[in-house]
Amino acid sequence: MNILEGMNPQQKEAVEYTEGPLLILAGAGSGKTRVLTHRIAYLIENKGVKPYHIMAITFTNKAAQEMRERVDQIVEFGSESIWVSTFHSSCVRILRRFIDRIGYANNFTIYDTDDQKTVMKHLIKKLQLDTKLYKERSLMSAISSAKNEMILPEQFEKNAGLDWKKKKIAQVYYEYQAELKKNNALDFDDLLVKTVALFQRCPDVLEFYQDKFQYLMVDEYQDTNMVQFKFISLLAAKYRNLCVVGDDDQSIYKFRGADIGNILGFEKVFPDAKVIKLEQNYRSTQNILNAANEVIANNEGRKVKRLWTENEEGSKLDFREFQNGFEEAEYVTGEISRMVREGQCKYGDVAVLYRTNAQSRLFEEKFLLANVPYKIVGGVNFYARKEIKDLLAYLKTIDNAQDDLAVQRIINVPKRGIGAASISRVSVHATEQDINFYDALLEAPYIPGIGRSLNKIESFTNFIQKMRTQTEYYSVKELLEHIIEETGYVKELEAEDTEESKARIENIDEFISKIVTYEEENEQPDLSGFLQEVALVSDIDSVDSDSDYVLLMTLHSAKGLEFPYVYLAGMEDGIFPSYMTITGDDPGELEEERRLCYVGITRAKKHLTLTSARQRMIRGETQYNKVSRFVRELPRELVDLGKDSYRDSGNKKERMGEFPDSRFGGMTGKKSSFGNTFKPRQFTVTKAEKLKYGVGDTVRHIKFGVGEVLDIVDGGKDYEVTVKFDRAGVKKMFASFAKLKKI
């Protein structure tokens, strides 16, 4: 096999340059995964490098799996020795082996966002913080940002100076890390921070991995943050055979701590670095690429490159402006239905992209009415559903009983009759004795006031202890089946005999299927390994390329994906780019928004449609926005505005005239699909004096079914209620319209 066969000159050069630092600037759709996988094969077959000396890192499990499959096909013998994984997965593998060197047990638990929230709620209560000043999310965000910058609690407190609010956050940071340590748990950020700490404190461990990974490749380098850069630079310091691949024009994760300076400044860190540009695109038509090039050229902080293709020129981009968001969603729904009906495409060929999650609601409603199958990426994660989290908590407790969150979640699930007062006494005992909650449960006979709950607590701990002794003999599937059988979890759901309980049983069945898949795909499957894999699942991993449904997702979620037909919705100043970036002082914020637009445009392979609305309801208020400046940056010859966005009694659609000077493609005299001039509906909101439900209550919605109230905000004119529905996910709605009923 000729590894270089079919490659363009720049791709060949990138594959053959194997020694020393290398920066590959890979434009969208330029075949970077092919370059990386063939580079690995070239190292092994042409340079004689042992497979176990190679490490390839990317950001998502989906990308890692795709790269792994390609490497296996090309390399064949010995490919299993190559580390192809995400940053987090790589760090977990390292920490599972050596984290005991820095004071943790090797069977640590990985906390997801819900677990972090639970810890933060506890700390806010413990430290008696004002919940108006200190929100869970803002505290978690501040701590995460600090970790991304490698700032530990001591340094965070020092940096706070005389700022009393930051000093209080520093106190929370200390307590948060102490709580995680007590539970033998790490959050996602800790996986990297602790690995870097391990390397810095244990030079022998670092040298072991430096010798192991003499050739290091990093994909999506533009998305790395400070701690990821530190991890990479430490690993590559000895042999310096570091190849990074990325596109500064697709750096869109600053809010997660990504530092575009890592890719823009690569040559400063490595002055002898070779730079190769991949500008030939294999995905899109030339018109789509021309549009992307024209938009991104307005950014100053970038390395100049221009995408081109040997593909056809393709059709012009469509731009459609509507009176409001309802009509925008109606048009997109109608166009998708028409294309499928006429055999132009399948539902799975289409994606609707938008700037914020909230924009999905109108599309969902229109899709449901038109029977258009769809899936939201970034909705309720399968593993965040109650029944799945309950069963995971059992597995976590069996694997690591130091995890207080997991134990406390299941102590009364299903109900065992252990009273709240007894649980409180156990918690107090745990605090006084400085032990874990589970260890305190084991000491229940010696805790005053436990009373009749003692037998029930002992029954629970005996069950957990028995299951822990079986982990060597039972598969993960068998463990879960024993848990379900002995706790009667599914029997309770069967007894409910409702649509919701049936759906939960189906989810549990799917969970068992996931475990079987894990056991089939791993040579040495075990409970810790399964819990690790589940903890590292991301939203994009749930995208099934073989399923036939329209994907609804934010532009951030769409990174790394491609679709024949793409709709970019909500193209208005104030929506995209966001109001904050337009009015802010940092021009870098607007440049990141423009990069996000570039990512959206380059997701399209055959055709791209941009849509906007003259008026849009935001937080209950009607806003009037200009057409997005990103649309106005497009040359007119690339955009088709000629077709009316509305079907009017089968009349032939007429072309529009020139752009008005004040707006790009302003459309006047719009008619609805029934031929009548559009008139906005008037709503009269009657705010209730007091709601009949509160945060934490279970409620029912006429359309979305049963859910739990997560938050209630008094917006003045009405209450804004956030509900996590079992089947429809998280929804925000106004109380007057939602008509929720407590159950």
Task: Describe the overall structure.
Helices cover 43% and strands 15% of the residues. It is built from 29 helices and 21 strands. Strands 9, 10, 11, 12, 13, 14, 15 and 16 form an eight-stranded mixed sheet that branches. A six-stranded parallel sheet has the order 3-2-6-7-1-8, with helices on both faces. It starts with 8 loop residues before the first helix and ends with a strand.
Oligomeric state of the chains present here: single chain
The termini sit apart by: 66 Å
What characterizes the major β-sheet?
8 strands, mixed
Round the mean pLDDT to the nearest integer and report it: 87
Q: Could you say which structural class the secondary elements and strand pairing correspond to?
A: alpha/beta
Shape: globular
Q: Please tally the β strands and state the result.
A: 21
Low-confidence stretches: 643-683
What proportion of the residues is helical, as a percent range?
40-55%
If you compute it from the alpha carbons, what radius of gyration comes out, rounded to the nearest whole angstrom? Answer: 28 Å
Number of helices: 29
Strand content: 5-15%
